[in-house]
Amino acid sequence: MCLHESGETWAERQRRDEALAAVHLTDRLVDLTRSESRRLTGRLGPYPAWSDLSAAGARLGRMDGGAMGRLARKVQWGNREPLPGWQVHYVAGDEGYAVSLTDTRDACGWTYFGDERGIVAEGYPMDAPVGVVPVDSQ
């Protein structure tokens, strides 16, 4: 059974909301890192590696005393599991980056995706054992 379907608990919903916020935060940190690169070198350069976001996350955590700063301090930047139970996949190059956080506690593999365009999507992998949703239920 999928963890994030209709029977989702409040605690699991909170975990999912936190992962979504972490994908948005990743986008913000990528922009901050590239802006700093432009300031120092005069050019944007390639998108940063996942491990390069740890310094930006630490700075944001010190500067922001609110929810964003708390999340920046909680995320384990550079680690394969940046939040408890969430596995990261991150690729970056000259033209862009993509990040995904997949819930390893969910049998269906709920995932959030983001990229350099600021687009964030959510869903299950194509081979996930999710139920069928009737067309007229939406």
What does this structure look like?
This protein has 138 residues and is an alpha+beta fold. The chain contains 3 helices and 4 strands; from the N terminus they run αααββββ. Strands 1-2-3-4 form a 4-stranded antiparallel β-sheet, covered by helices on one side. A hairpin with a 4-residue loop joins β3 and β4. α1 packs across α2 and α2 runs antiparallel to α3. The chain is globular.
What is the mean pLDDT? 87
Question: In DSSP terms, counting alpha (H) and pi (I) runs of 4 or more, how many helices?
Answer: 3
Cα distance spanning the termini: 21 Å
Spell out the helices and strands N to C: HHHEEEE
Low-confidence stretches: none
Biggest sheet record: 4 strands, antiparallel
- The secondary structure category is alpha+beta
Q: Strand order of the main beta sheet, please?
A: 1-2-3-4
Strand content: 15-25%
Large-scale geometry = globular
Helix content: 25-40%
**Total beta strand runs:** 4
Calculate Rg over CA atoms.
Answer: 16 Å
